[in-house]
Model the fold of this input.
Amino acid sequence: MEISRRRLLAALALTPWLSALPLRAALPEQQRIIALEWLPTELLLALGVAPLAVADTRNYNIWVGEPPLPPQTVDVGLRTEPNLELMTQLHPSLILCSNGYGPPPEKLKRIAPIMGFDLNRGDGKPLSAARDSLRALATRIGREAEAEAHLQLLDRELAAARQRLAPYAARPVLLMSLMDSRHALAFGKNSLFLEVMEQLGLTNAWQGETNFWGSAVIGIERLAHLRDVEAICFDHANDADMAQLSRSPLWQALPFVRAGRFQRVPAVWYYGATLSALHFVRVLERALETR
Done:
């Protein structure tokens, strides 16, 4: 059976996002910033600046979750088709977007200056790209000191986590998320997760194909060859799919399921930046340390 249209569209739409800094409660005129994609939303939050508005806050809460958006954040509609009239009425000083995603830049420039960001520069190092993007945004809005403090925190957390996770280095970790009861999203080469895992000294179990963003939609049956792995599945309000899958003989026969090495964990934004990396490290640690 083909992957459900709803889940496939969701996967395509979501393919190109613990802050340690307090958010500014007030928005100075020069920092009335709208973020149309979740990676630049995350960059802004990492700098301690509350966005004026964000696109698709409902799905942000499902797929990203951490850090939570300030309650006063305005929702400006879909990330692919935001409400340009509402955005104009908000009188933003800057619009943040992801390059190649969402409305054409010329439409946005009629409302306010824009700044675009790349998830991946083509070198398979999205976390490294995120570091550069954070510094670029910090320079644009005058938050350079906050950017360096955040990056130093990231480096400390990664170094400490590498030591704590050393006992788990020998067992590969499968990172996945359900798209429906027959298909999963697997993460490997080019992904944010893989770059973080390499810095943690851990091995990614999925060695198959991935797209430019480091993920691949695969049939559940393709997981049958993965033995002696820890399987970690990121949730995104998909209890019904998980319940249906759990009843299938195929799922019950998978080696990591039979061995009791499958865990569901909170959502982490697959295509995020430094805050997603930090959230991933903490979720990963909790999962592995409960084994």
Observations:
- The first helix runs from residue 5 to 14.
- The chain has a mean pLDDT of 89.
- The CA atoms of residues 152 and 223 lie 37 Å apart.
- DSSP finds twelve helices and ten strands in the chain.
